């Protein structure tokens, strides 16, 4: 009697499930693997390319200084230094797309060390001042390139330590080579300005890395959630599909055999077909398509086998006028689902449409309709009818074999319409060319009644909606929106901005000029920088952009009004660098167009100042062109990051789709194997005996009914299909107790399944006769289950969340 106990062994009450262990040969991912394309990897490649672009820009700008300052005792060594300074970062950019992380890190390390060595050479060997007017060494124009390169790979502390070291050495070199009367002050100012300028780009790089890490984390979490959701849906689909097959084939065969009302050769034939269906599910063949005419003929044969008196009507308006040259086809999966629903509807009609009057004449019709919108079949009878709302939930025929089966079919729908005394209509449809809200419409049935082919409102949809993306995370993934200028580091950089430019303004005071203009320009530029430090509101406020640009413009005009036509001050035009930094930050916050518009206005003001002071317009162009590389580097960085983010979004969507598909496939295979193993353990031995034509004894018929009841328990009482409940239920049924087990918990399992199983089994062991109905309650209820005992004493018992039994 192994088939009756489900292979549960001795039946000890350990609370373990009878469902087989997962097949180790079919793994299912529980934690998503990282996607093939990550934001961090894309950003690393982008930053390497940006470093190369910056090296190219500043390398070209440094060529005049290099040729003027080349070390004549050894021109080859000077050329080697220049090639190392600019060649290594360019090699880094060229290697970004194919080089491994180890190769890229090696290039960055070589770049950083060579830069320090070259600066050390200038300090130790070339420690004399350079000619006046050309005393800025070409090498310090490169200071930001190795610092940003290190920021691409290194940790935060190491990045800032190297940045401070590089800027300190740069200031010392400037001190050693300056031809000014106070070289120490020049070196200090130049080093601080380098630290300010480099810090902005280093901070941008680190902010981008943090944003990329957040994107990767969010992507991985989303991927995991989608894989789990897809696997959960696939498992449920597969389980319900197997349950429908079990109900239509296995349970029907066992009932026919157990009740003894069907001829033995028919039972044997059904058992053989059922075994074939179970075997076929182990490796489902590819799903072909079926011609509508073939589907109609097969439906006719099916109707004749189940209800010989049913009238089959074929209504195909798409071919009625003979204008269609090619016959429509329907996927085999859709035909199979519709056949199953129609077969169940016909069996229900034959069994129940006449009611308790055996001589009542019931007229049945099967109407097949094929249009350009799909394929549908309507089963109608004029029998006694019923109230669908009063059908007990444990009756699986309508809920699973008709409605559930069609709901699981993509583009499928079904509806059961009936009322007492007015017959029944069952409609099953497949309509891929219509919107889900109008998948199946009102169709006039042969009996003159209309049936709305929609799912009833209380039927839970199988396919879960994809959860919406976090509306905050996409904004965080953008550098322009992830750059938080309210952090301590941002405030420190702002303080450095204020201090450095205040120092430069003091150094470059021009005797005899109105200090009020210079002070006003300084305050306007500082306020412009502060205006960008406000927390970012999305979208970027135009008023905030206008304030920043307006203050910068005022500062530029005041400084140009303050400066004479010529001056020997080393940082006389400090305001141009300050405003350029503000424009870089503005571009980094997504306002690239506004930043370049501000730069164009700044260029016009410089040219106007040059012409107004009697100089050539080229003088003004030369002043602003020195800062074009800084803004261009920032713009290329931000623009490249935006393109990288868009490409990454597409790649992540593709990876997510593949992850869903993989999770669905693996979960479906695993669930199918587990469910088939359960069915085979419970029912295959009995089905094999039934497939052999022979007269069944009373004991064999009783065994069939026991197996049928166990299969129903596994389908409608899944949460309680565990030991020791299975043993207790079988024992109670052998004592003559009618036991019904219903699971209303859905996909949420009870919090204490072992305690629940022990309590239910204990109650069942105490009932000697009558009926017991066990119902697992939905997950949102405070209690886990109820037991209705109809025996010598009728009682209703409740199982609490802790597994304790009490009266309500």
Automatic annotation (TrEMBL):
Q: Which GO terms describe its biological process?
A: isoprenoid biosynthetic process
The terms under GO molecular function for this entry are: catalytic activity
Region Disordered: start-end pairs: 1-25, 449-473
InterPro entries reported for this sequence: HATPase_C_sf (IPR036890), ISPD_synthase_CS (IPR018294)
Known Gene3D superfamilies for this protein? Histidine kinase-like ATPase, C-terminal domain (3.30.565.10)
Skewed-composition ranges (Gly residues): 1-12
Membrane-spanning residues where?
46-67, 79-96, 103-124, 136-153, 158-175, 187-208, 489-509, 515-533, 545-565, 571-588, 595-611, 623-642
SUPFAM superfamilies reported for this sequence: ATPase domain of HSP90 chaperone/DNA topoisomerase II/histidine kinase (SSF55874)
Query: Keywords, A to Z?
Result: Membrane, Transmembrane, Transmembrane helix
Question: What name has this protein been given in UniProt?
Answer: Uncharacterized protein
Tell me which species this is from: Cryobacterium adonitolivorans
């Amino acid at each position: 009697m192994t088939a009756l106990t489900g292979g549960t062994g001795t039946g000890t009450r350990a609370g373990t499930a009878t469902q087989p262990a997962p097949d180790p040969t079919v793994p299912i991912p529980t934690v998503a693997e990282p996607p093939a394309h990550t934001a961090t990897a894309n950003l690393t490649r982008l930053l390497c390319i940006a470093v190369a672009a910056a090296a190219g820009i500043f390398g070209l700008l440094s060529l005049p200084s290099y040729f003027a300052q080349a070390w004549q005792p050894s021109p080859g060594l000077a050329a080697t230094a220049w090639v190392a300074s600019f060649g290594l970062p360019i090699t880094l950019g060229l290697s970004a797309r194919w080089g491994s992380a180890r190769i890229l890190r090696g290039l960055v390390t070589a770049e950083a060390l060579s830069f320090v060595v070259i600066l050390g050479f200038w300090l130790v060997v070339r420690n004399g001042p350079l000619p006046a007017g050309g005393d800025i060494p070409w090498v310090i124009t490169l200071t930001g390139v190795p610092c940003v390169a290190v920021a691409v790979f290194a940790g935060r502390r190491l990045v800032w330590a190297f940045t401070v070291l590089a800027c300190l050495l740069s200031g010392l070199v400037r001190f050693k080579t300056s031809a000014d009367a106070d070289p120490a002050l020049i070196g200090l100012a130049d080093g601080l300005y380098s630290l300010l300028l480099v810090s902005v780009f280093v901070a941008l790089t680190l902010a981008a890395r943090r944003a990329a890490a957040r994107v990767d984390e969010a992507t991985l979490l989303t991927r995991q959630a989608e894989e789990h959701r897809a696997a959960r849906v696939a498992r449920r689909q597969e389980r319900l599909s197997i349950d429908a097959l079990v109900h239509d084939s296995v349970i029907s065969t066992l009932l026919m055999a157990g009740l003894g009302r069907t001829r033995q050769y028919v039972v044997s034939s059904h058992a053989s077909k059922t075994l074939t269906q179970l075997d076929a599910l182990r490796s489902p063949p590819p799903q072909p398509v079926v011609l509508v005419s073939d589907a109609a003929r097969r439906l006719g044969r099916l109707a004749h086998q189940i209800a010989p008196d049913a009238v089959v009507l074929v209504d195909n308006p798409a071919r009625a006028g003979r204008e269609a040259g090619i016959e429509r086809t329907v996927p085999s999966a859709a035909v199979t689902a519709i056949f199953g629903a129609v077969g169940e509807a016909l069996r229900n009609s034959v069994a129940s449409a006449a009611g308790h009057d055996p001589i009542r004449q019931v007229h049945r019709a099967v109407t097949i309709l094929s249009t350009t919108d799909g394929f549908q079949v309507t089963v109608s009878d004029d029998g006694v009818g019923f109230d669908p709302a009063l059908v007990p939930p444990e009756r699986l025929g309508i809920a699973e074999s008709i409605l559930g089966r069609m709901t699981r079919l993509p583009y499928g729908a079904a509806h059961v319409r009936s009322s007492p005394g007015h017959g029944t209509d069952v409609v099953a449809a497949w309509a891929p060319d219509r919107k889900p809200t109008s998948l199946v419409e009102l169709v006039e049935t042969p009996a003159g009644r209309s049936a709305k082919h929609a799912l009833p409102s209380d039927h839970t949809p199988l396919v879960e909606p994809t959860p919406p993306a976090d509306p905050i995370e996409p904004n965080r993934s953008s550098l322009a929106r992830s750059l938080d200028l309210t952090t301590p580091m941002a405030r420190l950089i702002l303080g450095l901005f204020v201090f450095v430019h205040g120092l430069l303004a003091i150094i470059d005071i021009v005797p005899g000029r109105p200090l009020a203009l210079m002070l006003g320009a300084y305050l306007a530029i500082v306020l412009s920088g502060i205006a960008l430090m406000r927390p970012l509101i999305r979208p970027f406020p135009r008023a905030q952009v206008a304030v920043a640009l307006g203050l910068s413009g005022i500062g530029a005009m005041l400084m140009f009004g303050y400066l004479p036509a010529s001056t020997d001050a080393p940082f006389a035009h400090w305001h141009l660098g300050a405003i350029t930094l503000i424009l870089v930050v503005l571009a980094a916050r997504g306002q690239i167009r506004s930043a370049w518009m501000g730069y164009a206005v700044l260029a016009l003001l410089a040219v106007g100042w040059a012409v107004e002071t009697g100089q050539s317009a080229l003088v003004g162009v030369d002043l602003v062109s020195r800062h074009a590389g800084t803004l261009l580097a920032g713009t290329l960085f931000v623009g490249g990051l935006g393109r990288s983010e868009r490409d990454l979004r597409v790649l992540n969507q593709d990876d997510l789709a593949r992850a869903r598909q993989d999770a669905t496939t693996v979960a479906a295979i695993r669930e199918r194997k587990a469910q088939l193993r359960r069915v085979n353990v419970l029912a295959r031995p009995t089905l094999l005996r039934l497939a052999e034509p022979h007269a069944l004894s009373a004991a064999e018929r009783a065994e069939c009914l026991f197996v049928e009841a166990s299969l129903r328990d596994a389908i409608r009482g899944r949460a309680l299909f565990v030991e020791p409940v299975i043993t207790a239920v079988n024992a109670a049924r052998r004592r003559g107790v009618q036991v019904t087990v219903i699971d209303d918990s859905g996909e949420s399992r009870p919090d204490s399944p072992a305690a629940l199983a022990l309590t239910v089994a204990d109650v069942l062991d105490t009932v000697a006769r009558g009926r017991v109905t066990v119902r697992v309650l939905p997950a949102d209820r405070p209690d886990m289950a109820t037991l209705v005992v109809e025996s010598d004493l009728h009682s209703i018992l409740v199982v609490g969340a802790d597994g304790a039994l009490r009266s309500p």
